[in-house]
Amino acid sequence: MTGSPAMPLRIALATTLAAIGWMVLWEAFVAPLRPGGSLLAFKCLPLVLCVPGLLRGARRARQWLALLLPWYVAEALVRAMTSEGRARAAAAVGSVLAAAAFAAVVASLRGERPPGAHRPR
Hints:
The protein has about 120 residues and is mainly alpha-helical. The protein is built from 4 helices and no strands. It is elongated and about 55 Å long.
């Protein structure tokens, strides 16, 4: 891995915050399911609860994010395949952001393997 050990953690934080922000914009303004906004904007609350731990660099928060983010990727991909027009584009952006956040979280976790830990062959 190149760069400082904190770089994947910073990228994980930035992409998670971007995904949260986009989810709120997507469901409230860009392409809500109902005109005037949707309560689906609150779907990002589990991610928001992980942000303080992510700011501290807590391993447990990143483990929770690694479990949560694939669900957001899947939901956005389904909506991208079943929606039309602007809603499809909004869902595609959401899936890319959630996937990038997941990759960054996994990279930050992999960079912290305990000494002596190795992959089984």
